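Chapter summary example.
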Amino acid sequence: MLTSRGWWTIAIAVVMCLLGLTGLGDIAPAIPILGLTIVAWFLFELTLFAARFRRTLPNIEVTREVLQAGRSVATAWAKSTCTIRVTVTNQGPWNWPLAFLWDRVPEGRKVRGGDPKLACELRPGEPVVIEYELRSNSAGLFRFEGVEIRVSDLGGMFYRRVFLRAPLDILILPPLTDDEGKQRADKRFNSLPPPGLHRLRRPGGGSELLDLRDYRPGDPPKMIAWKASARKDKLITKEYESDVPVRTMLFLDQSESVRIGPAGETPIGMLAETASGIAQAAAATRDLVGLTRFDEEASDVLAPARTKVHTIRLLGKLAEAAAKMPNPGPREVEELQDAAYPLAQEMYPELFDSESNSRPWGLYWLPLFETFWAWIFLPLMFGWFLFLSWLMFQWAVGFQGRAFFEIIQFVFSITNSIRPKLWGFWSNLTSLIVTFIAVLCWPATLCGIVWFFNGIRGFFPGRARRLRRRKQLAAIFVALDRDSPGRIERYLKDDDALAERIGRFLADHHVRIPPKLYDREGRYRYRCESKAIVLANAIVSAVARARDNELYVILADLADLGDSIAPLMKAVRAARSRHHHVMVIVPWPVDVPPPEAAKANGRPVAEPAWRGNQPGRFIHLALTRGYQQRFEKLRNELARIGAVCVRAQVDDPIRLVLDRIDRIRGMRARR
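The structure predicted for these 671 residues follows.
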């Protein structure tokens, strides 16, 4: 509560008061009087500050608005600026002369305009507004936690920090495409064409004539324009407006492998944006679009439809998938604790108070019986005591008496040589008896020494700091979960339970931890091999529900699966046997050049830009070569069974998908 200025002020005032007890008080009585005056003023200001804080804090209200295009929205759009407006109102009767407000920006997001921090005066009934701008480049989530308030007096003697929690999740939908982006042909497209022009400029099986073109082998005879063919002396084919809907099913990968990356730059965000472009372009021409989200365990199906409500729902599903947090994997408890402790200290300052979250001294003592040393010393102690008991029994019955006295004499001689020499008869006798027992029962003495030094290690600064933080986090988790106090002891002893709870705590507050991509054996942790089986089952289910030849667009990270992709290949073959079209869109890493760049230079792999030492460059080059080779193998295997594989960042997947939809539409129209 006291600032450094406050501590120095009260310290100087107390010293001035103490000087009055010396001879200086008679020489200069103004000094102790001034000290007493400062102490009285200090205590008055402290009482006033505490009373004002207790009366005002419960009456502070925080409201938040997210504005886009000048109006309040519940969800925002990606690649467009959002205005965050936070209103803090003091509903209490007292005035705060100086307050520092800070709206906590979502993790990993940068402010594009304005300032989330503000220094102001909180007057009763007068709202204070914080306004700034955020922008997200991809679909995801804005997680707002609340507003931090630091209050202080005008003299800077006292301060208090509180965090007013007002959690709010704003879903960031994929960006909307304009009318030019929805077109499927190179011709000019108008949303409201002039009278006399066709609404759609694409061929199909409608009833309104669109265009005439030369006959191509395979065109049905009923489409031949005989009068025009007679005038031209060659076969002319009629094309009609498109009214043949095409069902497109999107399969979006939301497994752990596509969640890795900084906020707003994950592969799943890029895939969700691609899927959004396909869905909006298909819905613009009243095609039916469905969505299947899958991961390593299960899949979620949204049936195909073409209404505006369905499109918004589909975009919401894509945003929810893009907002999922990656599992950091098996991590050390200390690493997770170092990431969670500053966040908890920032958001729950009242739970760190010594009154509600104390640290007893017994917490730092390390028990010996929780280590393997206890299983060494306990048998030794019991064995030595049994040996002494056997000797005493032999001496009592008259056998081995000389050996017993020789052992006692030997122990006494050692005791007399090492015992401390003290003043006085009784003190020397006490030291002799204590040292004699310690030497005679040397296993128990050794165990006591080990027990003492093992337990006192918990008071060392590094270990005590980790234990204190662990206990504080455990108490906070129990308070948040409203669990029993015995749960604190489990968090202190069970590393797995604490790591799991810290992971949930970080995920709830949308905090990302850089995951470890490779284990100790050098294997990639996020291959997610089981998602191939889940995806194969989803494709087979879609084929079973299909009504006509459809288009299946798979947006997934499949390059690292290797031989585990066999179930997916079987499902794709089953879809192709039913005359369905399959396209695979793979997210391409930013730091990996495409294989075409290597072929153009006549090299086995295109060398990426690298700055660093030579061993690191060779490792990066080997990883790049391996990824390119795995992608080429995947593309060749898919092409062998009639599927198309493209890259999300390098190729133009939306245009390729729309061209394939037009191709399917033309095949239906010529039936």
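To summarize the output: The radius of gyration is 38 Å.
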